[in-house]
Amino acid sequence: MKSIIIASTSTLHEGSYLQYLLPTLQVHFKNCKSILFIPYARPGGISHTEYTQKVAQAFATINISVKGIHEFENAENAVKNAEGIFTGGGNTFLLVSQLYQQNIMQLLAETIKNGTPYLGTSAGSNICGLSMQTTNDMPIVYPPSFQTLGLIPFNLNPHYLDPDTQSKHMGETRETRIKEFHAFNAIPVLGLREGSWLEVKGEKITLKGNLSARLFLQNESPKELETESDLSSLN
Q1: Is residue 228 a contact partner of residue 199, using CB atoms and an 8 Å limit?
Q2: What is the C-alpha to C-alpha distance for residues 154 and 120, in angstroms, rounded to an integer?
Q3: How many CB atoms lie within 10 A of CB 101?
Q4: How many Å apart are CA 87 and CA 75, to the nearest integer?
Q5: Taking the model in full, what pTM does it have?
Q6: Catalytic residue from among 3, 159, 182, 229
Q7: Cβ-proximal residues to 71 (8 Å cutoff; 6+ apart), any chain
Q8: What is the pLDDT of residues 23-55, one digit of tens each?
Q9: 10, 122, 196, 229: the active-site residue
Q10: 172 pLDDT exceeds 80?
């Protein structure tokens, strides 16, 4: 049975890394002594080793050890043998490119669908949808496909920001960008605000966190979804 946490962000304002999620993660990874961390989304400024150490410090507070996938000789075996898996944030284009390059996109999807508990934040959440086409990230590399894990029957827009009526910025809002996507695609898109996440248990998908989320459907007005909303039937 699928057991997945899909979070908008790893860090809330004035909070430490993963702090707001730790009580949830302690339950989510309760049967894991260790988890596999996938740091592929980080484009620079911090190495995979440094990124993994940051994650390890957070998980140490709930007595779970962490090992980065880059520390293994064979990425496929690392995924197959993982007790739990976490993919962190960064750039989704880079993350997707690396997952295809390492030949683990399909394997990762199958492993999670078969019950290995998974956590995704930001870019690691983007890849849980049907495609990565609603990411906010710049296309710094060219992935072989936009198709991602398909763990849920819709797309995500993590870090979703509502239009600011007081702002003098005249560029496109997130809502505008998602409507542009829907001019050519019928896939539903969920705008996940900071502090919100999805809990996936089998085929049940529930919105969690302190804030609501915004649902975008092609040719329809956006809908506000409150915490504990059931998105299982969305397709």
Answers
A1: no
A2: 15
A3: 14
A4: 14
A5: 0.95
A6: 159
A7: 52
A8: 999 999 999 999 999 999 999 889 999 999 999
A9: 122
A10: no
Per-residue H/E/C for the chain: CCEEEEECCCCCCCCCCCHHHHHHHHHHCCCCCEEEEECCCCCCCCCHHHHHHHHHHHHHCCCCEEEEHHHCCCHHHHHHCCCCEEECCCCHHHHHHHHHHCCCHHHHHHHHHCCCCEEEECHHHHCCCCECCCCCCCCCCCCCCCECCCCCCCEEECCCCCCCCCCCCCCCCHHHHHHHHHCCCCCCEEEECCCEEEEEECCEEEEEECCCEEEECCCCCCEEECCCCECCCCC
CB 22 within 8 A of CB 10: no
8 included as an active-site residue: no
* pLDDT tens digits, 183-207: 999 999 999 999 999 999 999 999 9
Cα gap 163→124, rounded to integer Å: 25
Per annotation, catalytic residue among 8, 137, 182, 196: 137
User: Of the candidates 231, 233, 201, 197, which has an alpha carbon nearest to the alpha carbon of residue 212?
Assistant: 197
Q: How many other C-beta atoms lie within 10 A of the C-beta of residue 203? A: 11
The verdict on whether 164 is a catalytic residue reads no
